[in-house]
């Protein structure tokens, strides 16, 4: 694993990569409520310039819906996989392939919202087939939320799982994987034939790291709180921005990881 101001072997100059970016905790600092995030003009300009340098081979891969991504980053529009790959927009101005909320997921969401409606700081985010329960503003409530969610899982089809993240949990269909989202992009231009690079910060990003590793790319995790498949770590969101500036815009050869923190294991 790479830490520190050392170089990672094998990453080509910027023009040879396809860059996939998680959003919350990676490009933007986490906030107590998903709607509280702010994107400044500097970040929009950085991403726009990076997309241009990569001939368009830059995409968001996020648990947010594509529509929410567009609202957050407007007027910037980029290819995006939302809901862990259950939604796709393969080009900046292409159609969004979306998924609806199944009846059994709606019933579970209704029941859990009713159970925790008096719990201050707990926020439910209903995203079609995905239900996110945010407890960043109420960490003491998380064990109760997790227990209730686990009990509710039995009422859903066998195609669902629960993934606990940095500050909450999500009900996800089995097929909702960032690995599949990245693989879909890698089948089409301008991503096809490039070396994939994925930057994320959470447990839900691990399948993406594994896919990228298998494809000979570079996996980068921000602030890992435990074991990770990522081959590189970065200390914070600001370091991600600096990495994009150095690796993509400057096109540094041999993968100078700049602000990353120590060495490949």
UniProtKB/TrEMBL annotation:
It catalyses: alpha,alpha-trehalose 6-phosphate + H2O = alpha,alpha-trehalose + phosphate. Its EC number is 3.1.3.12. It comes from the Bacteria. Keywords: Hydrolase, Magnesium, Metal-binding. It holds the Pfam family Trehalose_PPase. Gene3D superfamilies: HAD superfamily/HAD-like, Trehalose-6-phosphate phosphatase related protein, domain 2. InterPro entries: HAD-like_sf, HAD-SF_hydro_IIB, HAD_sf, OTSB-like, Trehalose_PPase. It is an enzyme of class 3 (hydrolase). Its cofactor is Mg(2+). SUPFAM superfamilies: HAD-like. Pathway: Glycan biosynthesis; trehalose biosynthesis. GO terms for molecular function: metal ion binding; trehalose-phosphatase activity. GO terms for biological process: trehalose biosynthetic process. NCBIfam families: HAD-SF-IIB, T6PP. Belongs to the trehalose phosphatase family. PANTHER family: TREHALOSE 6-PHOSPHATE PHOSPHATASE. Removes the phosphate from trehalose 6-phosphate to produce free trehalose. This is Trehalose 6-phosphate phosphatase. It comes from Kumtagia ephedrae. The gene is otsB.
């Amino acid at each position: 694993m790479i830490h520190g101001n050392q170089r990672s072997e094998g990453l080509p100059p910027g023009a040879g990569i396809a860059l996939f970016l998680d959003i919350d905790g990676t490009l933007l600092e986490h906030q107590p409520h998903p709607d509280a995030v702010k994107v400044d003009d500097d970040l929009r300009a950085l991403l726009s310039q990076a997309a241009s340098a990569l001939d368009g081979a830059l995409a968001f891969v996020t648990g947010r819906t594509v529509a929410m991504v567009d609202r957050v980053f407007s007027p910037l529009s980029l290819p995006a996989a939302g809901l862990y790959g259950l939604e796709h927009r393969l080009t900046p101005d292409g159609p969004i392939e979306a998924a609806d909320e199944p009846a059994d997921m709606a019933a579970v969401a209704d029941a859990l919202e009713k159970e925790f409606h008096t719990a201050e700081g707990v926020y439910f985010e209903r995203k079609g087939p995905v239900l996110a329960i945010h407890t960043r503003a109420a960490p003491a409530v998380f064990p109760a939320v997790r227990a209730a969610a686990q009990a509710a899982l039995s009422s859903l089809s066998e195609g669902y799982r629960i993934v606990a993240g940095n500050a909450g949990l999500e009900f996800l269909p089995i097929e909702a994987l960032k690995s599949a989202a990245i693989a879909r992009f890698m089948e089409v231009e301008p991503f096809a034939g490039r070396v994939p690079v994925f930057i994320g910060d959470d447990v839900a990003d691990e399948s993406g790291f594994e896919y990228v590793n298998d494809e000979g790319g570079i996996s980068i995790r921000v602030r890992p709180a435990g074991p990770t498949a990522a081959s590189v770590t970065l200390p914070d969101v600001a370091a991600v921005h600096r990495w994009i500036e150095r690796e993509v815009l400057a096109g540094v050869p041999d993968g100078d990881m700049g602000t990353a923190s120590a060495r490949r294991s």
